[in-house]
């Protein structure tokens, strides 16, 4: 007769209360979000779940009204482009960026422009005094009767201001400075940021208020605080820019109301922040004289084509290991381009220092800039300038082939609009390499290999009659 064994007790489970990662045993550090002290034991499941009251009855999706969720303009067209039309009532927007990049200046401009359109705005600052914000608003021309300002660091006080002002737009600068009195932890801690953000988002959804939260970033560039914060909000915007440049860009990392491949451009100066509808001119030098080592690349920032000038300098090196210095371009891509030029174009740069930089603070990280970087390097090494009216676009493969890139038509249209006469592009499948055609006044030169590109641009190798190393002349 078989004996009846008692069932084994279920092993206790543990999970991270920040990101939801699960494990069978307790650990001090979450294996997913790498946060310390967030792994806790799971609560015992309830045997039964009772049905509770509903807030509003379910209805067919076609009968749900959408009038209350129509987006309205923020008064800043470049931000409306990134958001997908404007500010949506009840939406929670998180704007993150490095210190000093201009987050507060941008949102003060958004608040002022929204108040100018006769929408009531409440700007809550926890990092500055009200007088400091007023001084910045005076400098940027952001004084309007419908713009209310409060300096608070307590969550209860912030909710009290919302009750009194009844705004349509609420700006919190920043969430790391606001704390809830009944929650453990210091302001800016994981628990405080999570509870404060959840309370503000619940209030915004309930009152149909557009909520914009400023968030800090860590030294590696990620958003500070719990990762669940990015899941709670509807839109996550990244505000970025070089400290040495006035150009600032807003990118949508997450957007429930629009695309995530748009980018907004702004000019930050002492007079405030101004939207730039046509930023291509910032990335192109005046180019009064033709010099070797320059080429114009056609890159895509979101859905917007931008023409950027890339410069290169090649000098003989006396060091055992030549320098490879870049600014505004991907160093790994430059290393690949140098290897391809040496292997498939016969250009020996192992005894030369190579410097590559973009102009105007542009960041050329897209692979479609490979051909322009390669041409700039060869032009600098040969000492022969390229035609100032030609632009290049294309990805460079490891075997020296030119690969096709996306949105080629939009790139060529932008080059034609900026007055360029020729463009070097990868050859189409089934096409004849080296042929050129005229498209709306722009001469399009198709090429399939980097060696052929150098030949088409008359960067051909000339051997010295007395021997020695040749050059591209």
TrEMBL record:
Gene3D superfamilies: 3.30.230.10, P-loop containing nucleotide triphosphate hydrolases. GO terms for cellular component: cytosol. InterPro entries: AAA+_ATPase, DNA_repair_RadA, P-loop_NTPase, RecA_ATP-bd, Ribosomal_Su5_D2-typ_SF, Ribsml_uS5_D2-typ_fold_subgr, Rubredoxin_2. A motif (RadA KNRFG motif) lies at residues 254-258. PROSITE patterns: RECA_2 (PS50162). Residues 48-76 are annotated as: Disordered. GO terms for molecular function: ATP binding; ATP-dependent DNA damage sensor activity; damaged DNA binding; hydrolase activity; zinc ion binding. SUPFAM superfamilies: P-loop containing nucleoside triphosphate hydrolases (SSF52540), Ribosomal protein S5 domain 2-like (SSF54211). One of its GO terms (biological process) is recombinational repair. ATP binds at residues 97-104. Residues 68-217 form the RecA family profile domain. DNA-dependent ATPase involved in processing of recombination intermediates, plays a role in repairing DNA breaks. Stimulates the branch migration of RecA-mediated strand transfer reactions, allowing the 3' invading strand to extend heteroduplex DNA faster. Binds ssDNA in the presence of ADP but not other nucleotides, has ATPase activity that is stimulated by ssDNA and various branched DNA structures, but inhibited by SSB. Does not have RecA's homology-searching function. Plays a role in repairing double-strand DNA breaks, probably involving stabilizing or processing branched DNA or blocked replication forks. Belongs to the RecA family. RadA subfamily. This is DNA repair protein RadA. It comes from Nocardioides scoriae.
């Amino acid at each position: 007769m078989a004996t009846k064994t008692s069932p084994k007790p279920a092993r206790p489970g543990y999970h991270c209360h920040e990101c939801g990662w699960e494990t069978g045993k307790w650990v001090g550090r979450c294996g997913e979000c790498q946060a310390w002290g967030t792994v806790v034991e799971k609560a015992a499941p309830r045997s039964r779940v009772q049905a509770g009251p509903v807030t509003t009855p379910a209805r067919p999706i076609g009968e749900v009204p959408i009038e209350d969720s129509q987006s309205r303009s923020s008064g800043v067209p470049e931000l409306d482009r990134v958001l997908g039309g404007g500010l949506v009532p009840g939406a929670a927007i998180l704007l993150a960026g490095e210190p000093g990049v201009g987050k507060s200046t941008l949102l003060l401009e958004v608040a002022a422009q929204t108040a100018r359109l006769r929408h009531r705005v409440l700007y809550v600052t926890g990092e500055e005094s009200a007088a400091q914000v007023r001084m910045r608003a005076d400098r940027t021309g952001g004084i309007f009767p419908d713009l209310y300002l409060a300096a608070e660091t307590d969550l209860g006080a912030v909710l009290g201001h919302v009750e009194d002002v009844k705004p349509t737009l609420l700006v919190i600068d920043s969430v790391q400075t606001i704390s809830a009195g009944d929650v453990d932890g210091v302001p800016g801690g994981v628990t405080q940021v999570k509870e404060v953000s959840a309370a503000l988002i619940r209030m915004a959804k309930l009152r149909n208020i557009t909520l914009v939260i400023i968030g800090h970033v860590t030294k590696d560039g990620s958003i500070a605080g719990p990762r669940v914060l990015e899941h709670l909000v509807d839109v996550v915007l990244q505000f970025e820019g070089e400290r040495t440049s006035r150009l600032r860009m807003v990118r949508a990392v997450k957007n429930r109301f629009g695309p995530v491949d748009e980018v907004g451009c702004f000019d930050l100066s002492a007079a405030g922040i101004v939207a730039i509808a046509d930023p291509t001119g910032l990335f192109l030098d005046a180019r009064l004289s033709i010099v070797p080592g320059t080429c114009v690349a056609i890159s895509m920032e979101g859905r917007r084509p931008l023409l950027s000038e890339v410069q290169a300098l090649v000098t003989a090196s006396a060091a055992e290991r030549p320098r490879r210095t870049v600014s505004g371009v991907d160093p790994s891509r430059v290393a690949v381009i140098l290897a391809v030029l040496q292997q498939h174009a016969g250009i020996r740069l192992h005894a030369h220092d190579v410097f590559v930089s973009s102009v105007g603070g542009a960041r050329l990280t897209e692979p479609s800039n490979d051909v322009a970087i390669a041409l700039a390097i060869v032009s600098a090494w040969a000492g022969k300038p390229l035609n100032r009216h030609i632009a290049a676009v294309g990805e460079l493969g490891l075997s020296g082939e030119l690969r096709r890139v996306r949105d080629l038509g939009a790139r060529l249209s932008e080059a034609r609009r900026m007055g360029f006469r020729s463009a070097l592009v990868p050859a189409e499948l089934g096409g004849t390499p080296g042929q050129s055609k005229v498209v709306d006044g722009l001469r399009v030169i198709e090429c399939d290999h980097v060696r052929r590109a150098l030949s088409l641009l008359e960067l051909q190798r000339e051997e010295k009659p007395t021997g020695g190393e040749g050059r591209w002349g």
